[in-house]
Fold each of these.
Amino acid sequence: VTESVETGLSDNQLLQIYRDMVVARRLDKWLMTLQRAGRVGIHAPAEGQEAAMVGSAHALEPGDWVLPSYREVPVYIARGVPISDILDRSLCNSADPLKGHDFAIYGDKRYHVVPASVPVGAIIPVAVGFAMAIMMRREKAVVMNYFGDGATSKGDFHEALNFAGVFKPPIVFFCQNNQYAISMHFSRQTAAKSIASKAEAYGIEGLRVDGNDVLACYLSARKAVEKARRGGGPTLIEAVTYRLGPHTTADDPSRYRPKEEEEEWRKRDPLSRFKLFLIARKLWDEEKDARLHEEVEDMLRVEVERAEQKPPLHPKVILEDVYASDPWYILDEKEELEESLTDAEMQQ
Ligand SMILES: Cc1ncc(C[n+]2csc(CCOP(=O)(O)OP(=O)(O)O)c2C)c(N)n1
C-alpha cells in the first residue's frame, strides 16, 4: 500500500492502529521475559504478525465476534481488551478472568472474544456454528475466525468451509500463513500454490494479501466483513506473513530454519513498514516514534508491577465454572480439597 491509498480511515484511526501494533510488540516482549523468569507458564509470541492481527481486527465492529487460536494477543489489544486483563490471565493471578482454566488461552464475553481451543483447527467448525446461530437469529454481527496455515490440513477446516459455502453464514476465515506449523514449513503443508485458492472448491471467495502490510489486511478484512454483514456469505483471507519468534516459549526455531531466513523477513517488519507510511503521510516522525515507544514501555511496566502484586488464584477455583451446576463428583472433590487446605490457604 502506498501513501496515496484511500483507506477510509481518519488520521487518528491510522495512528491508533500503529499504537496497537507497538503495544502488541512490546507486550509480547514482556510476556516472553516473564515466561523466562518463571512467572508466566507459556506464551505463543506474535512478533512479525502484528499487521495481520491488528489490521484485520480493526475491520470489526464492537458487536462482532472473534473466534481466535492461541496467538492472537494483538487482536485482543485491537478489540480494546485492557492490558491488565491480558496480564492477569497470563500470570494466572486472583483477577484472572478465566480463573486459571484453559492454560494460555484468553476469552471474554464482554469483548466478544470466544476462548480458543488448543487442538489445531478445532475452532473452525465451532466458528461456523457460531455464525449460523447469528444468521438464524437474524442478528447483524459477523464472526472473524483466526487460524494458521497448519490448521488448513485438518479435516475441520474442509468440513467447516464446505458447510459455510452452502449455508453462507456471516463469517470471515482469517488464515495467517506464517510459513510454519511449529517446524513444518508451508511447502510441506500443502501442494497447492496458496491457501486462498482452496476457497474456490467450496464456492467461497478467497483473497491472498500481504500479511505484513497492515492496511492491506485491514482493507481486505473490511471488504469481507461488509460482505458478510450484507448477507453475501463467507470469505477466506490468507495473510502471508512470518512468525519471527519461536512457535511458543517451548520451541527453538534455530533447529529447523536458517537464521538468514528470519533476517530476510525482519526487513519486511510490519511495524517499520507502517511507520514509513505514516511518515510519508506527514503524520509521524522519528521523535514521535521514540516518545511513543517510551510511553508504551512505561505503561506496560506499571501494568506488570500491578499484575504481579495481585495474590495468586485460590486453589478451589480450579473446580469452578466447569458445569452450570456441580455434579456429585465435583462436589466431592471440592470437599476433599477444602479439607486438604490449611486455614491460611482457605482465607486467601
Ligand atoms: C490436533 C493437534 N495436533 C497437534 C497439535 C500440536 N500443535 C500445536 S500448534 C501446532 C502448529 C499449528 O500451526 P499453524 O496452524 O500454522 O498455526 P501457528 O502456530 O503457526 O500460528 C501444532 C502441530 C495440536 N495442538 N493439536
Note: Strands lie at 65-67, 143-148, 171-177, 180-181, 184-185, 205-210, 235-240.
Amino acid sequence: METIFEIRCGQAAYPVLFGSDAGEALARVWRPAWRQGIIIADSHTAALFSDRIAIAIGAMVRCCIQLQFKAGERSKTRTTKAKLEDAMLAARGDRDACIVAVGGGVVLDMAGFVAATYMRGIAHINVPTTLLAQVDAAIGGKTGVNTGAGKNLIGAFHQPQAVIVDPSTLRTLPPSEIRSGLAEMVKHAVVADAGLFRGLEVWAATGERIPATDLISRSIMIKARTVAEDERDGGMRQILNFGHTAGHAIEKATSHRVRHGDAVAAGMMVEAAVAHRFAGFPETALSRLRQLLATLGLPIRPQCAFDDALGSMLLDKKRTGDEIRCALPSEIGAVRRDGDGWTVAVPPELMRSCWEDLRR
Ligand SMILES: NC(=O)c1ccc[n+]([C@@H]2O[C@H](COP(=O)([O-])OP(=O)(O)OC[C@H]3O[C@@H](n4cnc5c(N)ncnc54)[C@H](O)[C@@H]3O)[C@@H](O)[C@H]2O)c1
C-alpha cells in the first residue's frame, strides 16, 4: 500500500493508504498503545471482510472483538449506536482500544461516531468498502446518525487515525452502489479536476464495471485536499456541495425513493444548467457532463417537479436569506467564487426555468 495523501486537519494528521493489502497497511499504522481491536461492520461487510481484518490485527492486540449491525441506512440510528457501545462496555473496551470500521458510509459514519464519544473519544481507522465511502465518506472526519427529524443531524467531527483503501474490495459491490460512488467522482471532477473528468470519459466508454484505480485515487485526493483546507465545512469544502442542493431536494421530495447518487446526478445537471446561464459554465461543458452521466447510466433529468422540491431547497442548511445557494462551476475543473464564499445565491425563478427545461 502506498500513502497517497497525508491529511492535516488542525491538531490531527493521518495518512490515506491506497493499494491492495489492507492487512499490511493495518500493521503499518497500528500503534503499540492500541491493546484492543474493535472491528465494526454491517451484516454484509462483516461476512466479507471482518475475519481478514481480525487476522491482520490479531498479533498486535491483547484481544479483538467483532461487532456488526444490520446493513442499510435504516440502521444508522442512536439505537444502533447504543447497542454497539453496550457491547463494547460488556467486552471491557477501554481507552486503549482502536475501532476498525469496515464498510460503506453507513458503517463509517456510525463507527466514527461511536469512536468520537466512547470514553470521551478513542481512536478509529476507516477501511471503506464502497466506492462512495472510498472517494468520499471515509475522509474528512464527519460522523453521525440519522433521526426522525432528518439525516446526519446528530454527530461529531472526529478524524480517523488512518484511511485504508483497497479498490479490490469493490468486486463484490452491486452495480447500483457503484453508480452512487460514480456520481460523487463526477462531482469531484467537475469542481476540481478537468483531467479526472477526461479520464472518466475515456473509462466510461470502455463499459468496465469498476473505475480504474488511478481514477479512484485521483478522486480521493480531491476530497482529501478539500477537507484539509477546510476541516469544519465553513469555506472551500462547500464546493463539494455541487449538485447537492437540488439533489437533496429531489431525495426529500421523493421520500428517498430516488437514491442519493441518482438524485445528485440529476442535481448536477440542474445546477450545471444554472451555472451555464449564471456563472459562464460553457455549453460544451454542459453537454459533456450530460453525455458522461448518461454513459455511466446516471439520470440526467430531475425526478420530480421543481415546485415539489422548492420547499426543501429554501430550508436547506446552506441557505442564507431568501435565495437558494449552490456551488456553481465556471468550467470543468473550477468553481466560481462569490466574494469570500464558494456558493452563489441563485434566484428561484432561474432555477425553475433550468429545472423544468430538463424535464421536457
Ligand atoms: N461522513 C461523510 O463525509 C459522508 C459522505 C458521504 C456520505 N456519507 C454517508 O454515507 C452513507 C452512504 O454510504 P454508502 O453509499 O457506502 O452506503 P452503505 O454503507 O449503506 O453501503 C451500501 C451497501 O453496500 C454494502 N457493501 C458495502 N461494501 C460492500 C462490498 N465491498 N461488497 C458488497 N457489498 C458491500 C453494504 O452492506 C450496504 O448494503 C449515508 O449514510 C451518507 O450519509 C457520509
Note: The pocket of nicotinamide-adenine-dinucleotide is lined by residues 42, 44-45, 48, 71-73, 76, 103-107, 109, 129-130, 132-133, 136-137, 140, 142, 151-152, 169-170, 172-173, 177, 180 (CB under 6 Å).
Amino acid sequence: LLTEAEQHEFEANGFCGPFALDNPALADLALETTLRELKFSPANDSIKAQHVLGDYKEDPRVLANAHHTHPAILQLGLDKAIIARLKTLMGPEIYLRRSQFWRKPAHGRGVIWHQDTHRKMGLGCIGEFSAWVALEDSTLDNGCVRLLRGSHKAGVVPPESVIDPSFRIRFFASEALQVPEPLLRYQAVPMTMRKGQFFLFHQLCFHASGPNRTAATRTGVVYRYLSDAGIESVTEKLIRVSTPAD
Ligand SMILES: O=C(O)CCC(=O)C(=O)O
C-alpha cells in the first residue's frame, strides 16, 4: 500500500515511485516472452520507435494488449506491489484496460510532452492511472520518462495550445527535451529506474522522454487501469484485476 506521505505526493505531483515489483522476475519473463514470441527481436532494434509501440498501423510486430494473449505479460500487470498501491489511489475496484510496450531502440528518438488523453480513440479524461514498468534499466542517457510535477491539475490541455506545431511533426520525433513555454511553471522530474521497478502516474500528468544516447535498447511496458467499467467510449475488453472482496 502507499503510505500516507506517498498518497499526498501522488496527489500533489500526479506521479509517484519508483517502487520495486513484488515479483521482479516477472520483468525478465515479460521481456523474454516478448523477444521470443512477439518478434521483438534484437534484429528489429534498428527500426524506428513508432514501429515497436502499440498496435500502430496494424503492424504485427507491435505490442499493444499482449496481456490478452501472453500470461506472463498479464501476470506482470497484476503484480501485487502495483495493484496494492493502485487500490490506495483508485479504490477497491480496478480494471486493466490496456498494456503497451515502449521499446526505444539504441539511438532512438524520444517522445514529446503529452497527456494520456487518447484523443484518437476519443477517450479524454477517464480516471485512468498507469503503471510504467522498467524491463531494462531506464536512465538519463537512454531516455527515461520525465514528468511535469503537478501538471495533472491543469485538466485536459489541448496539445496545440502547448506544443509548437513545428515540434509536433511526429509524436516520436523528439530530439530535445525542453519543456514547452506554457508548461514552464512545472518542474520536470526524470524517473530513472532499475529493471524491475515501476512508477505510477495520472493520465493528465504531462510526460515525455528524451532520445536514447546509448547503444542499447530501453524497454518498458505501461499498464493502464480504470476504476469504472462502464465508460461508454472505452471499447477494449477490460480485465478485472481487483474487487472490493480482495
Ligand atoms: O516510455 C516512454 O518513453 C513514453 C511513455 C509514455 O508516454 C506513456 O507511458 O504514456
Note: Residues 25-37 form the longest helix (13 residues).
Amino acid sequence: LISIILPTYNELGNVVALIADILSELKDHCLEIIVVDDNSPDGTYGAVSAIRDPRVKIFQRTEERGLAKSVRYGLERAQGDICIVMGSDFNHQPKYLKFMIQSLSDFDCVSASRYLKGGGMENQLRYVLSGIFNRFTRFMIGGSLTDYQYCFFAIRKQVLIQCDYDKIFWGFGDYNIRLFYYLLRMKARILEFPAQNGRRRAGRGNRRFIRVFFQYAISVLQLACLRNAETKAG
Ligand SMILES: Nc1nc2c(ncn2[C@@H]2O[C@H](COP(=O)(O)OP(=O)(O)OP(=O)(O)O)[C@@H](O)[C@H]2O)c(=O)[nH]1
Ligand SMILES: [Mg+2]
C-alpha cells in the first residue's frame, strides 16, 4: 500500500483535480490519499469530502495551523509501507510518482530536486535564492544533497519510524531539512532525481517569503550547532 499525504490550506481550486491526476497516474497501484486540511476557510474540506472514493481520506485539524504538523498528522495515520509527501497545488507534479515508487526498491528515500540537471522552476528569482540557500544548508549540515527544502519525497515507513518526529515536524518546509539531516545521520540511502516545479494552478501560495526565509535559516543554524556538538562528542 502506498500512502500519499497532501497537506492543504485553501487549495479548493487545486486539490480535487490533483487527486484525480494522482489516481489516474497510479491506477495500477494500491494506494490511499490522505488529505490533511487545516480548517481552510475556502471549503477545501467539503470539496474533498464530496469525492466518493474509499481511497481518499480527509482529516481536518482545527486546533492549530502548520504545514509540518499537518504532514506529521498524515504520516501518523498512513497505513502504507511507502509514504509520499507532496504539495496540493501542482508544484509537485504527479508524473514523477511512478519513478519515485520504482526507485524506492533500491533506496530508503527518493526526493525531487530542482537543482539537478533537468530540474528547475519558472520563478528565476526564487530559484536562485533557494539554490544559494541549499548550498548554504549543505555546507552547514553536511551531506551531498542538492535540494533540502522541496518537500516532495517518497520514503519507506520502516525508515521513517526510526526518526524522532518531535525533533523534525514543526514550522513550514524547514521540516524537510531536519528530516534529511536525521536521515543522513542514520546513513539512510537517499536518491535525488531532477524535477521541474509545476505551476500552481489556482489560488495564492505562501506569501510570507521573508518570514519563511528566516525560519529556514534559523533551522539550519540550529542543525549546524547540533552537528558541531555531536562531532565534538565523537
Ligand atoms: N495543512 C496545511 N497545509 C498547508 C499550510 N500551509 C501551506 N500548506 C500546504 O502546503 C503546500 C505548500 O504550501 P504553498 O503555499 O504552496 O508554499 P509554496 O509552494 O512555497 O508557495 P507557492 O510557490 O506560492 O505555491 C500547499 O499544498 C499548501 O496548501 C498549513 O498551514 N496547513
Ligand atoms: Mg506551492
Note: The chain is about 40% helix and 15% strand.
